[in-house]
Design a protein that fits this description.
The protein is of the alpha+beta class. The chain is built from 15 helices and 13 strands. It has a domain of about 190 residues: Sandwich (Immunoglobulin-like). A hairpin with a 4-residue loop joins strand 10 and strand 11. Helix 6 packs across helix 7. This is E3 ubiquitin-protein ligase. GO terms for molecular function: starch binding.
Length: about 425
């Protein structure tokens, strides 16, 4: 008879059932001998799904069944965990849980490996594992398996430290729960943000943003501590990941800011790269809860691009403002910009094509604000003529608003007067 061992008893380890045997072909390559327990062979990888099978199917759920007529939905799960440093000296890190795929608390099926030991020496992960969801919650724990004794020493203290599998996501991001023997005192690394970032592509932005939000929920302090501006600036060369980096930047700005705080990007920041990424945003690119996170990012990028870089990639935001900043708060970020003749000419040239088609969506007060700023940029008759050449006055004065008309007259009078004085001086 097999012995059933409950990991939640007030002991720190379990002895695996001695009568279960695994063939040598399923052993990890580094194992050269089979440990013994009494008169029976004990092997931790009982029923281990081969690596080749585990990696099939990507991160999407798929349907499998016992026969052609019965199909059950399975999810593919990867476990990610930070363990105490050098824990591998005491045994093999494993995951054991309450479902068949995780060993039913009796067998070791899932071994953990270190994918990047040099950069993240405490980060371990499993191969993707197909798990059939249950009507009951699936519980699991991390542990250290000693092949010589057949024991698994679990994290935490008893049943109260059991974890619950989150079946809504394909990746479980955890940090070891200290027990009497193995402890994490200070976590000097945090691989999870990098893991999520590396997996981002054009098709899974929403899923990866959701995973990052779960990271904030479950490990907020570590996530915010390791989510630095350097992390963003070192990685925005990859186009397919820039919108995800924009989300990270939004959380970074909110975490560092306050109601009276105006976030300033560093001078060398490549704001044009993230602004270009926003040009492809659609109504469903971000979920509704992310849009308030994105608006401060748009404001910071527009301010940097217009005021620091003296560039015009910020004009593109008008095309997608209804999706990323429907209140058009970013308008306040370029109002203070003043350009010389060279730049005002370029601004007025690009305005009709990029901005004009989208002005009808702007409310009257914001419209007047933009009109006043644009007219104020015309410091002499030459720039006024440029504005006329590109039909800017028609673009701006869409209505007979008296405030706009009065402002245009008052703003242009000094420019007319200045050119008039210059003409008189030439004649004298």
């Amino acid at each position: 008879m097999k012995r059933s061992v409950n990991p939640n008893r007030n002991i720190s380890s379990i002895i695996l059932p001695p009568r279960i045997t695994l063939t040598a072909k399923n052993l990890p390559p580094r194992i050269t001998s089979t440990p013994k327990l009494g008169d029976h062979t004990v092997e931790p990888n009982i029923g281990l799904v081969s690596t080749a099978k585990n990696i099939i199917g990507g991160t999407l759920s798929r349907f499998i069944g016992k026969d052609d007529d019965e199909y059950k939905e399975c999810i593919q799960v990867t476990f990610h965990v930070h363990l105490p440093q050098h824990i591998e000296r005491f045994g093999e890190p494993v995951v054991v849980g309450s479902c068949k795929e995780l060993g039913n608390w009796r067998m070791v099926r899932i071994l953990l490996t270190q994918p990047n030991k040099r950069e993240f020496p405490t980060y371990w992960r499993s191969q993707p594992i197909e798990i059939q969801p249950s009507k009951d919650e699936i519980k699991y724990k991390y542990g250290v398996f000693d092949r010589s004794s057949g024991r698994v020493e679990f994290e935490g203290e008893g049943e109260r430290h059991n974890r619950t599998l989150d079946t809504k996501t394909n990746d479980q991001y955890d940090i070891w729960k200290n027990n009497n023997r193995f402890r994490i005192f200070n976590l000097n690394e945090f691989a999870f943000i990098r893991c999520i970032y590396d997996a981002v592509n054009d098709e899974n932005l929403k899923d990866k943003v959701m995973q990052f939000q779960l990271l904030l929920t479950n490990h907020r302090t570590h996530t915010l501590n390791f989510m630095t501006l350097d992390f963003i600036t070192q990685r925005y060369q990859k186009k397919e990941k820039r919108l995800f980096l924009s989300v990270l930047l939004g959380y970074y700005i909110i975490d560092k800011g306050s109601p009276a705080f105006i976030f300033q990007l560093p001078k060398q920041f490549r704001s044009e790269l993230l602004l270009e990424a926003f040009e492809h945003v659609q109504q469903d690119t971000f979920t509704s809860d992310i849009k308030p996170i994105i608006a401060p990012v748009v404001a910071a990028l527009v301010r940097h691009n217009a005021m620091v870089m003296i560039s015009f990639e910020w004009l593109r935001i008008f095309r997608v403002a209804q999706f990323v900043d429907p209140a058009y708060t970013f308008v306040d970020e370029f109002i203070g910009a003043h350009y010389d003749k060279k730049y005002i000419s370029r601004l007025l040239k690009e305005w009709p094509e990029i901005v004009k088609p989208h002005l009808d969506r702007i409310d009257e007060s914001t419209y007047i604000k933009i009109a006043k700023w644009l007219i104020s940029c015309c410091s002499n008759m030459e720039t006024v003529n440029i504005m006329s050449q590109y039909n800017i006055e028609d673009t701006l004065l869409r209505s007979n608003n008296e405030i706009c008309v009065d402002y245009v007259v008052n703003a242009l009078m000094p420019a007319v007067h200045e050119d008039y004085i210059k003409t008189l001086k030439k004649l004298i």
